[in-house]
Amino acid sequence: MKDTFEVPAMMTKEDVTMMILSAKKTAGLTWEEIAEKIDMSPVWTHSACMGMNGWPQDKAEAIVAVMGLPQEAVSVLEEPPTKVWEQSVPTDPCIYRLYEIVGVYGPTIKALIEEKFGTGIMSAIDFDMQITKVEHPKGDRVKLEMSGKFLAYNSW
């Protein structure tokens, strides 16, 4: 890809996200293809492209090269995430269903985690997720597999 982006005086994560989305659309790439080119998972790649993860330098340089972004984007991608998102329930049907799952099964997930591990939480930082398509006679199914490090609550 060719570096064709106008570089703002003070580039932000939002600027870089828009550049990545524009380059992705122009190139006709999928998240899986982009992730493969930088040797990362598609889940992590998308999340990091949306500004929800800070990039290690080598991966920031790789995504900048793959997407044809200006070199100034590397340091922006390396910045720690702010993890800012809307706290209200979203109206997008797919994202809403994930909220619904947590609303219905959240207390169950918490109870079962505590029975198996003790009182604590599952990390969303030391975390991995896979999304796969499972063929099914009643209609294809979405399989989400999430794995996060258990973090026990500390008493101090």
Automatic annotation (TrEMBL):
- UniProt cross-references to InterPro entries, sorted A to Z: Cyanase (IPR008076), Cyanate_lyase_C (IPR003712), Cyanate_lyase_C_sf (IPR036581), CYNS_N (IPR048564), Lambda_DNA-bd_dom_sf (IPR010982)
Q: Any idea what job this protein has?
A: Catalyzes the reaction of cyanate with bicarbonate to produce ammonia and carbon dioxide.
Positions of the Cyanate lyase C-terminal domain: 84-156
- Protein name stated in the entry: Cyanate hydratase
Quote the catalytic activity from the record.
cyanate + hydrogencarbonate + 3 H(+) = NH4(+) + 2 CO2
A Pfam family annotated for this chain is CYNS_N
Q: What does the record give as the active site?
A: 97, 100, 123
According to the UniProt entry, what is the EC number of this protein?
A: 4.2.1.104
Similarity comment: Belongs to the cyanase family.
Main EC class of this protein? Answer: lyase
Keywords for the protein's UniProt record, in alphabetical order = Lyase
Query: Entry's SUPFAM superfamilies?
Result: Cyanase C-terminal domain, lambda repressor-like DNA-binding domains
